Amino acid sequence: MFSEGMTSPGANPLSSSAWRPQPASRGPGAEAGTYAPPRGVAWDAGSVSAGLVTRGAGCPRTMATRVKRRRVAGPAGGGNPDPVAGFLSWCRRVGLELSPKVAVSRQGTVAGYGMVAQESVQPGELLFAVPRAALLSQHTCSISGLLERERGALQSQSGWVPLLLALLHELQAPASPWSPYFALWPELGRLEHPMFWPEEQRRQLLQGTGVPEAVEKDLANIRSEYYSIVLPFMEAHPDLFSPRVRSPELYHQLVALVMAYSFQEPLEEEEDEKEPNSPLMVPAADILNHLANHNANLEYSPNCLRMVATQPIPKGHEIFNTYGQMANWQLIHMYGFVEPYPDNTDDTADIQMVTVREAALQGTKVEAERLLLYERWDFLCKLEMVGEEGAFVIGREEVLTEEELTTTLKVLCMPAEEFREFKDQDGWADDKKEEDSLTITNIPKLKASWRQLLRKSVLLTLQTYATDLKTEQDLLSNKEVYAKLSWREQQALQQSEVCSRWHNSPFREETLRHQ
């Protein structure tokens, strides 16, 4: 899906407002299926807001083989017998300074190219610095002037079109200064995003996660953006775009690459009202792989971007960045991998807002009760607490969309007389009580009607998954059978098991226990 900006690798350019926001701030109006945010962007209350994520502590080496996204063998352009040597030579020419304590390598990484500590690294040490002139963006490419002049014609929902056109041009330019950088890219034809899976496989393996629906919106946005904006622009400038790059397939692949590898610089606090910054490609930084418990972070300064160690990194250990506070559904959607339970400390479980409405409707007995339920729901929509595309988001210790879910439970469960008074007053002031807190441990203290509605909602959510938790755990524990699964099947199984475990564990067990 395409979405707005991030601050770490991995933006999703082609989907627009249809994105479901990241866990901590998925709100009522958010949808899945707009281009995803670039790496490191934090979500904020139903909208995507840029912000450098600094969570995490340490990265156990034992997790590596299970966690990383797979990088495919071979450079995008091919033909270079030693792409790492060419890239390092290019780094020296452009002033991209790598610490002597780190190395770009395939050895000692979980998969493909990565960055490894050659000596012990302490927190705060600079790993490398990328001068802004070495960044690849719509402002630094060789057709930056044209892109700026045509900015109005290149506007789109995703906001990624200028960067994608810059990449299309530079990829086919014989003397592109970024050619050595492109040599370390994954093979574009072998990206593992679900958007490249057959539709039947995507729906079968990712049922209930929301990813198939997000991908469908992405694909529709990609097609629309390519044929309505990108192709006409390239055809108007045939001297800058050769026929071989006028390809919807290549554009599709580049969208996925930008989704997974681009960065988005966060706005300053005083710039919060501005549009998010455009995504950009950051050589060297996009080599690092992701862990929720990462040991490095990208920092922005006026002259350069700096990757700095945040934890002690022993010699021989891989260096991991964070792509943001990403739930597993976002990781598999945008990058094609997940972190197995319980490694992803940022993982969440979702209950679709309309599922809570459906659970409430099941408790109505006569038409008047149904009509009143819909009246309550319409009022929640007016308060912007719920929406047809939104989801309530459950974190490890609390509900991350607490205000929305608390208000929804109050309105749907309160007596009719109280609702009339509430509606007449157009809502009430914040009278939140401690016993209404939606921490996992506080669920038993909630009103019985609230617990009952939550329980029904969780049970309805579990019915959307293709298999149950025990089946998934049996597969995961059988190493011989698991090893025979395809990469896609393994990642989908990990994602589905995490979702089932979350819905079975904190919410369902607590609500069932206290009915």
Automatic annotation (TrEMBL):
**Keywords, sorted A to Z:** Methylation, Methyltransferase, Nucleus, S-adenosyl-L-methionine, Transferase
Q: What is the top EC class of this enzyme, as a single word?
A: transferase
The cellular component terms of Gene Ontology attached to this UniProt record, alphabetical and capped at eight, are: nucleus
PROSITE patterns assigned: SET
> Where would I find the SET domain in this sequence?
100-324
The yes or no answer to whether the keyword Transferase is present is yes
Q: In its UniProt record, which GO terms are filed under biological process? A: methylation
Q: What is its EC number?
A: 2.1.1.-
Q: Which GO terms describe its molecular function?
A: protein-lysine N-methyltransferase activity
As its record notes, the protein acts as a catalyst of: L-lysyl(8)-[histone H2AZ] + S-adenosyl-L-methionine = N(6)-methyl-L-lysyl(8)-[histone H2AZ] + S-adenosyl-L-homocysteine + H(+); L-lysyl-[protein] + S-adenosyl-L-methionine = N(6)-methyl-L-lysyl-[protein] + S-adenosyl-L-homocysteine + H(+)
Outline the segment boundaries, as ranges, of region: Disordered: 1-38
Q: Would you say which domain of life the source belongs to? A: Eukaryota
Polar residues bias: where?
1-19
Record InterPro entries: N-lys_methylase_SETD6 (IPR011383), Rubisco_LSMT_subst-bd (IPR015353), Rubisco_LSMT_subst-bd_sf (IPR036464), SET_dom (IPR001214), SET_dom_sf (IPR046341), SETD3_SETD6_MTase (IPR050600), SETD6_SET (IPR044430)
Where primarily located? Answer: nucleus
For this protein, the parts annotated as crossing the membrane are none
> Could you describe the subunit structure of this protein?
Monomer, homodimer and homotrimer; these structures are stabilized in the presence of S-adenosyl-L-methionine (SAM).
- Role played: Protein-lysine N-methyltransferase. Monomethylates 'Lys-310' of the RELA subunit of NF-kappa-B complex, leading to down-regulation of NF-kappa-B transcription factor activity. Monomethylates 'Lys-8' of H2AZ (H2AZK8me1). Required for the maintenance of embryonic stem cell self-renewal. Methylates PAK4.
Which family would the database say this protein is a member of?
A: Belongs to the class V-like SAM-binding methyltransferase superfamily. Histone-lysine methyltransferase family. SETD6 subfamily.
User: What is this protein called in UniProt?
Assistant: N-lysine methyltransferase SETD6
Gene designation: SETD6
